[in-house]
Write a structure and sequence with these properties.
alpha+beta, binds FE2/S2 (inorganic) cluster, 32% strand, single chain, (2Fe-2S) ferredoxin domain-containing protein, 9 strands, 195 residues, four-stranded mixed sheet, 4 helices, OB fold (Dihydrolipoamide Acetyltransferase, E2P), Glutaredoxin
């Protein structure tokens, strides 16, 4: 991906007035009230940043990022959020350094259950998907979640058409990534929800 912005300096605080390179952990998509992906949530040390992405970068977020990926984001502060100009994966050596530096933090270490985010798998419940096996996937996922204490922070929700009917049955992970014709086991594995 082409870098569109030259970084100014390492991030020091969310209120810094100029452009920064935020290096941190992608913890999930940031969505509008209507559920549209607008950007990402980024854990930098003990702070969490809400970062808006330009429209053309949002599909990349859905396709390529998974929670717990380390990324670097060129961004500048705007109100209580950050506006990104570019985003790239963080080289593994730098990611490993951050992993070690932040190993005491909740987002990286195993969390006590009350602090762990709830994760919701959405299952398209509209005609085509449900007829093609979505109904069974929904019930199997629900049964798997209900019967496994390690998945107590996971929920399953039936939703409307995801506009990918040809590829159904369709599921969507909290990251926004869509899964086509995935089994419940595959969906849970992709979710990486087990502690
Ligand atoms: S019916 Fe499921 S994506 Fe349209």
């Amino acid at each position: 991906m082409k870098t569109l912005y030259e970084p100014a300096a390492e991030p020091k605080a969310a209120s810094a007035p100029t452009g920064q390179v935020l290096k941190g952990l992608y913890t999930g998509a940031y969505r509008s009230d209507k559920g549209k992906i607008k950007g990402l949530l980024l854990q930098v040390g003990e702070a969490e940043f809400t970062v808006t992405l330009p429209k053309y970068l949002r599909p990349m977020l859905v396709r390529e990022l998974a929670p717990d990926d380390f990324v670097q984001v060129w961004a500048y502060p705007e109100g209580d959020r950050w506006r990104a100009i570019n985003i790239l994966p963080l080289p593994e050596c730098e990611a490993e350094t951050l992993r070690q530096e932040w190993s005491h933090l909740a987002a990286i270490t195993e969390l006590p259950q009350p602090q762990q985010k709830r994760l919701c798998i959405e299952v398209c419940s509209k005609g085509k998907c449900f007829k093609q096996g979505g109904r069974q996937i929904y019930h199997d996922l629900q049964a798997a979640v209900d019967s496994d204490p390690e998945l107590s922070h996971v929920s399953v929700k039936a939703t409307g058409c995801m506009k990918a009917c040809k590829h159904g049955p369709n599921l969507r992970l909290p990251s926004g990534q869509m899964l086509h014709r995935a089994s419940p086991a595959e969906a849970l594995a992709k979710l990486g929800a087990k502690r």
